[in-house]
Design goal:
Elements: H1 2-16, E1 18-30, E2 33-34, E3 39-44, E4 55-61, E5 67-76, E6 82-88, E7 103-109, E8 116-117, E9 125-131, E10 140-142
């Protein structure tokens, strides 16, 4: 009898872990020029309690034209909180023309309705073209 209860409980716990996926694409510019080789990270901004930092779903760089396309999936009990972190040096100089240390770090939160069930995203969030010369409200600095 205890085995049956244990097996049912185990199956319910396994069922609670559900696959969730997300995809995002777009283009980054630096002024009128493509923002090539910009590091982009697709993260889960709401990691489970066991994780001490954001979970990386996908990571890479923009192409020569500034285009990117990333997708990722994770199996977890809690909701996925997808966000796109962008690390770049566009318009990143002092008023004396000297490059600042590190990179500018911008985070874009992806709306929940782009999160899909399963390992393959069914919708793609298209952020369009974004000029990274802009100063973003919650911008941070990544020092390496």
């Amino acid at each position: 009898m205890y085995r049956v209860v244990f097996i049912i409980a185990l199956l319910l716990v396994c069922k609670a872990f559900r696959d969730q996926s997300v995809a995002v694409k777009g283009r980054f510019l630096c002024g009128k020029a493509p923002a090539a080789k910009v590091m982009v990270t697709l993260i889960d901004a709401y990691p489970d309690k066991q994780m001490k930092q954001n979970a990386i779903l996908s990571k890479g760089y923009t192409d020569a034209r500034g285009n990117f396309m990333f997708s990722g999936a994770v199996a977890k009990i809690s909701a996925l909180g997808p966000a796109l972190k962008v690390y770049h040096d566009c318009n990143d100089v002092t008023k004396f023309g000297v490059a600042k240390p590190g990179s500018r770090e911008v985070t874009f939160v992806i709306p929940d309705h782009y999160i899909g069930a399963g390992k393959t995203p069914k919708k793609i969030m298209d952020v369009g073209s974004i000029n990274l010369e802009l100063k973003f409200k919650n911008e941070e600095r990544e020092l390496k």
